[in-house]
Amino acid sequence: MIIHFIGPGGAGKTSTAIHLAQKMELSYHDLDQYFLDTEGNISEYINQNGYDKYAIRNIQLYNELKESFDKNKLYIIVCSSGFMTYQVDIFSGYKEIRQDIELNPFTFLLLPSLEIESCTKEIIRRQLKRSYLNSSVEKEEKKIRARFPIFMNLKCEKIITNEPPEKIAEEIYVRLSNLISFI
Q: Would residue 120 count as lying in a domain?
């Protein structure tokens, strides 16, 4: 089984996953890191190949990662910020992958707010702190405004990340404990 963390960059997915993985003694896998380890710099890859080819390769890497897991164990995957926002026909089987993630009771959409204006403002603030992104207010605002409605329409559990990651991880742990007791 897989616990998925989805949502925009800067929502706290990786930080929360680290804390949850420690608490539950699980391994976590960051899809962005797996891409970096496998293909190199994401920005350079997109610049050389285009966003659609990046999305396709990201889906392939997700599949590879998932296939490497022991079916009898629980894992955490932190999905890339855009993973749930690709066009459904971008790659054979992506529509089903996206639907499986969305409907999985162990999927958590992390957002700093469920309201677009405060979410946008907070995501921009958090993303601009990441100097390695070499981003801008305009670029981050455009990205989150385009993706926010897609995220909000997903049928998975939504978690507001306006607390420290360890507190968010504890909240998710309690929710998971309730779910796992029924499985």
A: no
